[in-house]
Amino acid sequence: MTTLAYAASDSAAMVGRSVKHTVRNLESLLMSVILPVVLMLLFVYVFGGAIDPSGHYANYVVPGIILLCTGYGAASTAVDVAQDMAEGVVDRFRSMPILSSAVLTGHVVASVARNALATALVIGVAFLTGFRPDAGALEWLAVAGVLLLWVLALSWVAVCFGLIARTVEGANGFTFLVLFLPYLSSAFVPVQTMKAGLRAVAANQPVTPITETLRGLLLGTPIGSHGWQAVLWCGALLIGAYAAASVLFRRRTAG
Question: Is this model's pTM higher than 0.90 or not?
Answer without folding.
Answer: no
